[in-house]
């Protein structure tokens, strides 16, 4: 009975997300990445950053696999999880708006916020990290000019980050609906599953959003030292599957949203 | 000053329009709901029609669970729930008929009251949002500068009222309110009661829960008493009230001569039994609260006994409701 995207829900969600002091928290991981990238770039201001091989590590392991999911976690669990926790979601759900619309709108807002707060800083960091120098200026010269096709390396990272924002947002939104401890569960997913288990158990990489990102970044940009394990086609396919399943099942759970009662 | 004496500018004279779509009935048929192995609602069958109905019961009795079953936020484990002939569970369309005021006052505190009600009106896709918002704010007496303040600056009573305004903005045929008077001052209570009365009189089906007998007594013609998940009593509030006041009461009495007082009290009609406590004092079981209260003073004066303490021993709501279940 309604469109898939609801601007009223989007406006409330966005105000709830950015109106709080949380926006500072959301911006913090990105600021750290930018500071680290600029610092390393200045410190290795000799020739091309490639000589040191750090861009792949910083953009991949820190940017794509740590910063992006952390930012997406804060955003993804905020746009729905806090409302579920304090039951204010009842005011949205006690209207004729379909639950699919609620889920989809929240997801779009989460994607948009993650793009702004994580993907844009990663993009800036990617261009800074992969840019070369016209000649050999002093250590504090910040005139970065891409050379030797470095722009494609940055583009690979940016595309991967954008895909990651979409998939992480869907997954963390889904977790917000299925568990009341969504922050704890997402942290476990990021820190234990993605950062630890997938490193040692290769089969689990097929179920890691971070690995999809690295696969796409590598497939598109071929940035060295990304340590990607999946092909770009597998990464894209699994990203689509992850997103569709998370949104679909999340919507189903939202359709069966129960208020925890007195005896619960 | 009692609540009755507080002057209220009533709008009762101005009747509200009948609900669009006509009166709506809530029908619960053998409804049971359990959380894990805890039964919250136990085999309740009832039909609630237009007018104001109070769900009365102690905390944890299952009133909120019942309201959530009716509002589509819980699925019955057994039995069926329907509102205006439609099932509430898995049916967002039912919220064109239902307005819900949840007990928890978590609202979008970063919005102003007007923004909150406006957002609700937009979600209902009302044709004239501004008019609907103005009408809803007026109904709850929030059409003041307070409507343009952020909700996180509101008192608990104001939050309750803005929630009611949001629930009323689409003129629902059924209004469900979970403990709506919590946090309201006496004047706000009176106004809210007046509003609910007028909605009920206009043909809306109003159901509210409360654990305070006086609230239910003042507001609703029909009372459903819920105790431990069961429908303990149902019907006119006067009948329920009579049951409650005529139940046996137990008093702890301390006096200057317990034995003399005990022998004199046992001869009175209003007293069912007297027991001397080993540590001193009496335990008196009275059949009629009012008559015993009057006679105790008379008996003490006649016997020359000084009363030191008279304490009702079982005045908890739970004991009152437990008596209702037993009777």
From TrEMBL, chain A:
Presence of keyword Transmembrane helix: yes
Entry superkingdom: Bacteria
Stretches that traverse the bilayer: 58-80, 107-134, 154-175, 187-210, 230-250
Keyword Membrane: yes
Keywords, comma-separated and alphabetical: Membrane, Transmembrane, Transmembrane helix
Protein name, per record: ABC transporter permease subunit
Source organism (scientific name): Catenulispora pinistramenti
Automatic annotation (TrEMBL), chain B:
GO molecular function ontology, one term from the record: ATP binding
Region of interest: Disordered: 1-21
Domain ABC transporter: 26-253
Swiss-Prot/TrEMBL keywords: ATP-binding, Nucleotide-binding, Transport
A Pfam family it matches: ABC_tran
PANTHER family: ABC TRANSPORTER RELATED (PTHR43335:SF11), ABC TRANSPORTER, ATP-BINDING PROTEIN (PTHR43335)
Name the UniProt record assigns to this protein: ABC transporter ATP-binding protein
Lineage of the species this protein comes from: Bacteria, Bacillati, Actinomycetota, Actinomycetes, Catenulisporales
